[in-house]
Amino acid sequence: MNAPATVYPVAEDFAAQARVARADYERLYAESVQQPEAFWGRVAERLDWYRKPTRIKNVSYQLEDFRIRWYEDGELNASVNCLDRHLATRGDKTALLFEHDDPALPAEHVTYRELHARVCRLANALRALGVRKGDRITIYLPMIPEAVVAMLACARVGAIHSVVFGGFAPNSIADRVADCASKLIITADEGLRGGKKIPLKANVDAALKLPGTNSVETVLVVRHTGAAVDMQMPRDRWYEAVVEGQPDTCEPERMNAEDPLFILYTSGSTGKPKGVLHTTGGYLVYASYTHETVFDLREDDVYWCTADVGWVTGHSYIVYGPLVNGATALVFEGVPNYPNMSRFWEVIDRHQVTIFYTAPTAIRALMREGDEPVTRTSRRSLRLLGTVGEPINPEAWRWYYDVVGDARCPIVDTWWQTETGGILITPLAGAIDLKPGSATKPFFGVQPALVDANGAALEGAAEGNLVLLDSWPGQMRTVYGDHNRFIETYFKTYPGSYFTGDGCRRDADGYYWITGRVDDVINVSGHRIGTAEVESALVLHPKVAEAAVVGFPHDLKGQGIYAYVTLIAGESPSEELRKELVAWVRKEIGPIATPDHLQWAPGLPKTRSGKIMRRILRKIAENAPDQLGDTSTLADPSVVENLVNERLGK
Ligand code: WT7
Asked: pTM of the prediction?
């Protein structure tokens, strides 16, 4: 059994002023699952609708009758909810607080009025370029205000944005552009992170030379670093030039609640990344409601989420949630260790940040540098801390709590996924006692359950696979262009429920402890990488015959990427080739997929039917050859012996 975790009780002064206090949680939770229509109907009133929804929830997870619809007769526009409705009361309030990579540059304050005008100008320009409701637009930008402007301008004209993280390589951009047949790309000359330049425009140019990308008619280029870039006329246009002279108001497109808002590509266990599709009404209700409730948002908060808008965290908790809520959100272009290890804390002091939301991998990296870079800053403005992306080890949690938060600030460990649109399991700081390492309890309307490998429900304290028994408004609606894949991936494994792909333990207090992915997805520093993607990249190399990739525990990244490679006959392993293959994967997918280990494998462990036994490869990668388990179904047991000896350096 697990040792009892220390409990950090709700601070009474926090509870006294919290949006959800102790007594509220159980009552509201019960209502949310017993009367979801009443509950979510009421919550939807937080948005401005052209037409208020009367049909709140229409969901069935039964395969013969499958549907997920929320607020289906409602009509609204996302950008109006993020901007226009604040103009009367918050026009001069800072919407975005932009902190450059270079701390010597002054921060930029973008008010709601200014943001509205910038969004309208770009939206008008998009229309002038022929963009219409339902068109797909790819956004490949650094963390600069234009990234937010671009997303909201798409939403204003009803175009579906697909943001591609700046760390992805041309091949990955091309795959994502081709999959949704994007008409237009918005990029910048270069990105800048920790003083290093990222050739964004050059990457787009390379991507657009690849097959399948003919749909792109226009590339808008933001001048950011001022670097010289190749402009291919008439395809490429300077962003500044197309928005110049456009009116600063723009008629928004009236969208149905179930019209798509965005696509975001994410890795799964098999094949290419899936285009996770989120729609307008339910997503906005859920993102804004969770943002306000989980972060206990108040009017004068300065809220900072360190994610990139290339990930769902940026979509829901930098852009849509905070802006619907009229909050001030900090947008940070840089990295935690530049120009020094105190950067996060210096930014917090400079802007008097009150709510800070980051990833366990960043916390672990900063913790390694000792307390001094933290303690030489004040951080008195902070009142709430959050984490997301991967399980946080209790040691890192305590350091975050004691050193960063001076033992004053509750931590919300928020579990969710690209697919879920918003936070599903999390503490509410005024209502739920904390346990380091546990995401604690389900948010309103969320019904987690644990099942064993056969789908049998596990009751009470137990460990199993995490499923969700019913829908919530922020749930993804489909895989873009492949509805079958959506149903196959999430609703077939355990019929009648949504399968998360995560393992989880529930303790005797009903607290949830996410244990990590149980499928072939590796969580590297909070980013999902499919083993199949890295394998396909490796086997594209002319000298590689076969590859198998698994995750292994990594001190900083949570999980690292471990690749086993079999060379074609006649090729022999060398240090040079190892480096070449690692660089190859970086070039094919992007730096985030860089293998941490690459082991030569004269053969791979397979069953007699030819299936690679990843369980065994994981144990070898973990350096736990004594836990290989049952190897009796192997076609050739000597293969394993070879790999183990090689791993142990024998
Ligand atoms: C996977 C989803 C949700 C935004 C960032 C990642 C893992 C996420 C936690 C957490 C333990 C977590 C899960 C999940 N994960 N948050 N608080 N505790 N694990 O989104 O790329 O879609 O990845 O991240 O394994 O399934 P994503």
From this structure: 0.96
